[in-house]
Design goal:
By secondary structure, the protein is α/β, with parallel strands linked by helices. The protein contains 2 helices and 10 strands.
Length: 183
């Protein structure tokens, strides 16, 4: 469990290699956490991410932003829970997951939950799940790009906002290498 005290801020970048669970308590006024990461699945991989954020003090902020790319028959489960305790006035919480599916890959359980016990807060969640757009692939391939290259361009564009954030956090650009090829 990670506990953040008054005015502490933490950004937690990740690439989901194994199942992972984040448990964060925002225990001090003005504490903030941002969890940002990538989920890459291929073959028959099954991956799971759980994020539990508790806003226990006023003026706290949390943001969970996950992007996934699944190929083959891989599967991804995401469970996010934000709890805003009574007295945590002015809290701001957001959960988001976006997943791009190839082949027979599936999004499993995608369960964002907000438990709000204080009326004076801002909280939200969003999720998008979709197969790669064949029209986009066709357009790129009609410009002389192979299907594999077209898929890679779409994947790179899809994960770019997360990769940019992670790279900006790393002192060395090579700390996180992203290679996700088809096949």
């Amino acid at each position: 469990m990670i506990t953040l005290r008054k005015n502490q801020k933490r950004i937690i970048p990740f690439e989901l290699l194994d199942d992972k669970k984040f448990d964060v308590v925002l225990a001090g006024d003005g504490a903030e956490v941002e969890i940002v990461g990538l989920v890459l699945g291929k073959g028959n991989e099954e991956k799971s991410l759980e994020a539990y954020i508790t806003h226990a003090a006023p003026n706290t902020k949390s943001n969970v932003n996950v992007r996934g790319v699944l190929r083959g028959k891989s599967r991804f489960d995401f469970r996010g829970n934000v709890r805003i305790e009574k007295g945590a006035k002015g809290s701001d919480a957001y959960l988001r997951s976006d997943v791009l599916l190839f082949d027979d890959a599936k999004m499993g359980d995608d369960t964002p939950a907000l438990e709000i016990l204080e009326p004076d807060v801002k909280a939200g969640h969003a999720a998008t799940i979709g197969k790669v757009d064949e029209n986009m692939l066709f357009y790129l391939m009609s410009r002389g790009i192979s299907r594999k290259q077209a898929e890679q361009l779409l994947v790179e564009g899809f994960v770019a906002p997360i990769m940019d954030k992670i790279r900006s956090l790393n002192k060395k650009r090579n700390d996180l290498v992203f290679r996700f090829h088809s096949g």
